[in-house]
Sequence to fold (74 residues):
Amino acid sequence: MNAPSDLSMKTDEVLRVELEVFKREHRDLDEAIHALAEKGMGDQLTLQRLKKRKLRLKDLIAQIEDRLTPDIIA
Fold:
């Protein structure tokens, strides 16, 4: 996850591409966590690190989606 935290410097096109990449990575991490937990192969530290990375990705995805979604004033 090499994305800078300042999203304001990126174009919407770049953000959309990054959003898809981050969503895919989030999905892959979810699958890896479930696989390790089911097989009992992952130690607690590894699972905890994967879960933290997944949460960071989730936060980053939410930030990008907020930036791409226009505010609607009712």
